[in-house]
Amino acid sequence: MRSPLKQMAGTVKTLTNLISPVTVTAHLRSRKSQSNNRSFDVINNSLISRKVRTVRTLIIRSHTNSDQVSGTGGPDESPRRSGFSSFPVLAEPLLSFASSNFLPLALIGGVALGLANPGPGCLAHRYQLSIVSTFGIFIISGLRLRSEDIGAAVKAWPVGLFGLASILLFTPLLSRVILQLHFQPQEFVTGLALFSCMPTTLSSGVALTRLAGGNCALALAMTVTSSLLAILMVPFSISKLIASGLGASVPTEQLFRRLILTLLIPLILGKAFRESFKGLAEFVDNNNKLLSVLSVLLLSLVPWIQVSRSRSLLLMVKPTAFLVAVTMGALLHLILLGFNAISIHCLCAISGGKNSIFAKKENSTALLLIASQKALPVLVAVVDQLGGTFGEPGLLIIPCVAAHLNQIIIDSFLITFWKTKEMPITNT
After folding, report:
1. Which of 134, 140, 318, 357 is the most exposed place for a label (fewest CB within 10 A)?
2. Rg, Å, the chain Cα set
3. Do the Cβ atoms of 192 and 332 come closer than 8 Å?
């Protein structure tokens, strides 16, 4: 029999071997033969291979779970996460459409807001916010007016001279024809007649001319000059062409002073600020888009205030009357486009054909677009000054807002057609 001490030593050694497989392995290798060593190596390799497969499985599971969490295309990706990630993709075309059509959307939004809740618009009218908006629009126009652009238009002065005659003398005669229409409410007809006596647009015409590849300097010169001359011409055109047929009197002197205050003075101030502060001129040139948005927002205040004031009357007008007003506004612009297009062809034939200054594409494009558009802000200033002389101001402005939107939309399609037509020529 072994002594207790030896038995205890054997037990400790056995436990040590169980705890330490390395020791077991070394002990077995010392006592087993070469064949047993080969068998142990096979078993050991099998264990290692099993551990590698286990680790690989854990890595794959971890990668799959990370795909599910981050939403990058894992097989079990949550539908809610997928819908959220696709939201920017759906919103991008909507934002692009809103940015490209900010002007018509702002004008339509002003009309819709005035119809939905007239309270804020009536409050804005009480504090004469419409005067502030018109003043701000012409301040911005003066800030964006470059002296070199006006000088560059001197070479095309015959084209600009005819454009001014078309804007201020020829197209206002169309108001006599418009007044022959009989339609209820009659303010819709009178409003379009007043609209035909206005100068050209302040910003959209120049922007569309630039988009069409026309003479931007010429377009800007015609825009500025017609706006200045309109202070003299518009009161007399309204008095002779419209008021005489309706038996109403126009406060010409008051209207003249009001146009100077709301149009000429802010335009001169804006130009003076630009020339006085060189840093301001650089800021304006680098932030044209921001100023355009601000100008559009100021312009959208006009239909919002006027529609809010006349909401009760507008709700009494039948929907068919609005459709007729929109149609009349579109026809008015198409007639102006046709008149100016025919005039350009006639002037080309008289002044040298293809060598005529009117035949140059950039000049004819600027003339056609600028001379065929009418300014909504000037109309609003005139209607606000006239008060109720020709009827309810809101009803007078509604068809003009529609006509303003129509001329922008129609000219946009026209420019797209021109570019599509030129595409085969460019590719050849």
Report:
1. 318
2. 39
3. yes
pLDDT digits (tens, 9 = 90+) for 41-61: 444 445 445 544 554 454 444
Note the pLDDT of residue 18.
41
Q: How far apart are the first and last CA of the chain?
A: 114
| Residue 95 phi, psi dihedral angles, 5° rounding | -65, -40
Residue 379's identity, in one-letter code, is L
Take residue 152 and report the two structure tokens written for it: 């560059």
**Average pLDDT value for the chain:** 76
Question: If you average pLDDT over residues 29-45, what whole number do you get?
Answer: 45
Q: How confident is the model at residue 278 (pLDDT cuts 50, 70, 90)?
A: confident
> What's the pLDDT band for 169 if we cut at 50, 70, 90?
very high
Contact 305, 127 (CB under 8 A): no
Closest CA to 382 of 262, 216, 229: 262
pLDDT grade for 368, boundaries at 50, 70 and 90: very high
Q: What domains are defined for the chain?
A: 4-64 (no CATH), 120-427 (1.20.1530.20)
**Residue pair 190/338 in contact by the 8 Å Cβ criterion:** no
Contact indicator for 198, 230 with CB cutoff of 8 Å: yes
The 8-class DSSP code of residue 354 comes to: G
Exposed e or buried b for every residue in 184-193, given b needs 16+ CB within 10 A?
ebbbbbbbbb
- Give CA–CA dist 414/393, Å, rounded: 32
- 410: pLDDT strictly greater than 80: yes
Please report, as a single letter, which amino acid is at residue 395: L
* Contact predicate 305/117, CB 8 Å: no
Q: What is the pLDDT of residues 297-319, one digit of tens each?
A: 887 887 788 778 877 777 777 78
DSSP code, position 239 = I
Largest interatomic CA distance in the chain: 144
Rounded to 10 degrees, the C-alpha dihedral 243/247/253/256 comes to -20
Q: Helices (H) and strands (E) in the chain — how many of each?
A: 23, 0
